[in-house]
Design goal:
Blueprint lengths: L1 E3 L7 H9 L4 E3 L3 E5 L6 H9 L6 E4 L2 H7 L8 H4 L3 E4 L2 H8 L6 E2 L5 H8 L6 E6 L5 H5 L3 E11 L12 E5 L2 H10 L2 H5 L1 E5 L2 H10 L7 E4 L5 H9 L3
Parallel strand pairs: 1-2, 1-9, 4-5, 4-7, 5-6, 7-8, 9-10, 10-11
Antiparallel strand pairs: 3-8
Helix pairs in contact: 3-5
Length: 237
């Protein structure tokens, strides 16, 4: 059994892929995405949005950053009002931007480190759209940067009860979700699972933050896409 832990709002593609591949997919939506717009200072939004021409680069770190960022910034008309470069952290994020008429620059390695290498030597001021759950790599390493944390990842402890003491392959797309699972479940349950994570950095962060995880069976997908996550999971069936 393969378990999808993504929020419902991000699960449409993986559900369709699993159906096409005749894979048994169990959806346990451990979190929801909630807009962070109301918690930010309105003047801050006004400053960024009304002064968009002051930026040379706009960066989106996830599909959700595009979806929630579009409530702050009119992306459909951005190409008319913005003359700088627009960056995407990966293909899924790029697709969300393309739906809104934007063709972004995408880092080849599909992660924050790769995106930093592309942007690092660019001059000017950057505006970053991300979530509050972001690990903060770009925030920490880019200078002359303004940040809009436009959404938050909110976890549901009750949903964990659906993870049973059976052999399951659990798909995890970010560190916060993996940390939530590892910190909440009994070690006996954890040891019965195979975890497929979207990047090596997720595993590195877990090792940095928690001890005694060497017994856990954690494997890394070739790419952080639904297709590659399912492909990796299928190799354990």
């Amino acid at each position: 059994m393969i378990v999808n832990t993504r929020p419902l709002s991000l699960s449409e593609n993986i559900i369709l892929l699993a159906k096409d591949q005749v894979l048994d997919l169990k959806n346990i939506h451990l979190s929801t995405l909630e807009s962070n717009e109301s918690s930010l200072d309105n003047q801050r939004f006004d400053l960024y949005v009304n002064g968009i021409s002051a930026y040379d680069n706009i960066i989106f770190t996830s599909q959700s950053a595009v979806k929630f960022g579009s409530k702050i910034l009119n992306l459909e008309n951005l190409s008319k009002s913005f003359e700088g470069e627009i960056y995407s952290i990966g293909p899924a994020t790029s697709l969300e931007l393309q739906k809104r008429g934007i063709n972004p620059i995408v880092a080849q390695s599909y992660n924050s480190e790769g995106l930093l290498e592309v942007i690092r030597n660019k001059r000017g001021r950057s505006l970053l759209f991300c979530g509050k759950n972001s690990r903060g790599y770009l925030k920490d390493n880019l200078i002359n940067l303004d940040v809009i944390d436009c959404y938050d990842l909110v976890f549901n402890s009750n949903a964990l009860k659906q993870i049973e003491r059976n052999d399951e392959i659990i798909l995890v797309y970010n560190f916060k979700t993996l940390d939530f699972i590892v910190s909440s479940l009994d070690i006996e349950i954890l040891n019965s699972k195979v975890f497929i994570v979207a990047s090596n950095r997720i595993l590195e962060q877990l090792r940095e933050s928690r001890k005694n995880i060497e017994g856990l069976k954690i494997y890394i997908a070739d790419e952080p896409s639904d297709l590659q996550m399912l492909k990796k999971a299928s190799s354990f069936i």
